[in-house]
Amino acid sequence: MANHVNITPLIYDTMGARFKFIHCSDLHLDTPFKRISSYDPALGEKMVRSSFDALDAIIDKAISEQVDFIIFAGDIFDIKFSTPRSRYYFAEAVQRSNIRCYIAYGNHDYERRWEDSIPLPPNAFVFPDHPVSIPYPDRENMIADVIGVSHGMKEEKRDLTADICGSSAFSIAVVHCDLDTASEGKRYAPCRLSDLLAKDIDYWALGHVHTRSVVHTSPYVVYPGNTQGRSINETGEKGAYIVTVDDGKVAKMEFFVTGTILWSEAEVSITGKDMGSLLDEAASKTVPGSFVRLVITGQGVLDSLIRLERESFTETVERRTGCVITDIDIRCVPDMDIEERRKMGDFVSAVINGSDAMSMMTRDELIGTICGTKASLSVKGIFEDMSDEELQRMVDDARASLIERLAGGSG
Question: Has this prediction a pTM greater than 0.90?
Answer without folding.
Answer: no
